[in-house]
Model the fold of this input.
Amino acid sequence: MLGTRLRQAREAKGAPLHEVEWATKIKSAYLEALEEENFRLIPGAVYVRGFLRTYANYLGIDPEPLIDEYNRADETAAEIISTRSAVQIDKRPLVVTPAMIVGVALILLLAVFGLYVKTQFDRYQASLAATSQATPRPSVLSPAPSPVAVPTPHPSPTPPAPTGVQLVVKVVNGPAWIRVDVDGKPSTETDVGKIYQPGVVLTFNGTQTVRVISGRASNTTVTLNGKDQPLLGGSGGVADKTFTKT
Done:
């Protein structure tokens, strides 16, 4: 079954549906429909074949057997033909009634009244502005500013050497899916695998190691104990790197 093959390949890859959606630009609802072989939720056979090809290429499997299996299943599906007669809408001419005339007249009266109220309000606002400009304001002398004492500069203390692993992860250029393990345990902030947008800065502190897994290595930079590190990768693929305090 093609749906079972897709689900098993995705689970073997360890990719959640929202990560596949971000990588393939296919809605997660359509991905679930492919895995469950519920093709009625996808608008058209052309889209089904295209989604199968894109999904299979992402998972690293041959899409042609999957498309051939879908084509065989599609050929055996019975086509439902409607036998109901076409419904014709009886178009009636517009009839002007006294109630319609009264309604239109009321609408026009309300519009004229609203315009009159707005005009009077604008005139009132203009008169208030003219009155405020004509009234002179008393001049107030500002007191002379008090002299400000200049603090004596003190030398900044030398920061102590790091005793553990402090890793600052920054997302640049574009979004990236990130997971972080601290001292061998998944971080509570990224244990479910979140997609972060550019500009996000995450800080992790560990005793021995901090491991970073990024779905977009070219969009991820790290700073280890205050020192900038090279990009996790330059090809834009997945990167998995572990940092220690040395």
